[in-house]
Amino acid sequence: MAKNWYPVIDYEKCSGCLTCFNFCPHDVYEVRGDGEPLVANPSNCVELCRGCQKICPNEAISYRGDLATE
């Protein structure tokens, strides 16, 4: 699992569809009280997986620690 690499949600783009929450088998996400996804367990993320980013219909997910964005 990753310590310095995890998903970051852009809430300006996020529609709250919960595709990322429903996809991730590692319990990285939880659902906030307002129904939007929250990266609650970032250390559970598998480094370089990118599965939730690939399926996000609004391209609302990027990654902290991604060399492409730093």
Describe this structure in words.
With 70 residues, the protein is of the alpha+beta class. It has one domain (6-64): Alpha-Beta Plaits. It has helices spanning 19-23, 51-55, and strands spanning 6-9, 29-31, 37-39, 61-64. A two-stranded antiparallel sheet has the order 1-4. Strands 2-3 form a two-stranded antiparallel ribbon. A hairpin with a 5-residue loop joins strand 2 and strand 3. The longest helix has 5 residues, at 19-23. It comes from Thermosphaera chiliense.
Give a quick summary of the entry.
This protein has helices at 19-23, 51-55, and strands spanning 6-9, 29-31, 37-39, 61-64. By secondary structure, the chain is of the alpha+beta class. The longest helix has 5 residues, at 19-23.
Radius of gyration: 11 Å
- So how many helices? 2
Helix content: 10-25%
Estimate what percentage of residues fall within beta strands: 15-25%
CATH level-3 fold name: Alpha-Beta Plaits
CATH architecture, please? Answer: 2-Layer Sandwich
What is the CATH domain class? Alpha Beta
Number of strands: 4
How many distinct folded domains? 1
**Form type:** globular
**Poorly predicted segments:** none
SSE series = EHEEHE
Instruction: Tell me the strand order in the biggest sheet.
Output: 1-4
Q: What's the N-to-C terminus distance? A: 20 Å
Q: What structural class do the secondary elements suggest?
A: alpha+beta
What does the largest sheet look like? 2 strands, antiparallel
State mean pLDDT (0 to 100 scale): 91
Organism: Thermosphaera chiliense
GO molecular function: 4 iron, 4 sulfur cluster binding; metal ion binding; oxidoreductase activity
Pfam families: Fer4_10 (PF13237)
Keywords: 4Fe-4S, Iron, Iron-sulfur, Metal-binding
